[in-house]
C-alpha cells in the first residue's frame, strides 16, 4: 500500500534561517550544488510549500542554465554572467538556498553602474525538451545515413 503524502500548504514567503534572508515566489536564488567544486546553481522560485507542521519547506525552482551547460555550449558572444531561463522545474529543500541574486534583462544589465557577484543577466530561454527532441532526430538521421549502403 502506498504511503499517503502529508498535506502541504503554500507559503507567501519563507525566511531561510542560515542566511537570514526572506524569499518569495519570483525571487532568484543561489542553490548549493551537490559537488562543491561546481558553481552555485541559479533558480527562480515559482512556489513555496510547507508540510502541515511547517517544518519541511520545499520550493518549486525553475532553473537557469549557464551557456556551458547547454547543448550548444558557451560561445564567444556569451557574457561571463549570462544565464538561460530553462523549462526545467524541480522541487528542492529550502535549506539548499545559499543566497538571493538578481537576474536582469540584458538591457537593464548593461545599464548597471556596478555589477555585483550576485548580478546575472538573461536574454535567451532554453527549451531542453526541444533540444533533446532535435538531438534525437539528428542522431537518428545520422544513423540512417551511416547504415545506407550506396549501390554502384
From TrEMBL:
Coiled coil spans: none
InterPro entries given in the database record: BAH_dom (IPR001025), BAH_sf (IPR043151)
Keyword annotations: Membrane, Transmembrane, Transmembrane helix
Superkingdom of the organism of origin: Eukaryota
Pfam families xrefs: BAH (PF01426)
Ranges annotated as spanning the membrane: 131-151
Single Gene Ontology MF annotation: chromatin binding
Signal peptide: none
Matches recorded under SMART domains: BAH (SM00439)
Domain BAH residue range list: 21-137
Name of the protein in question: Detected protein of confused Function
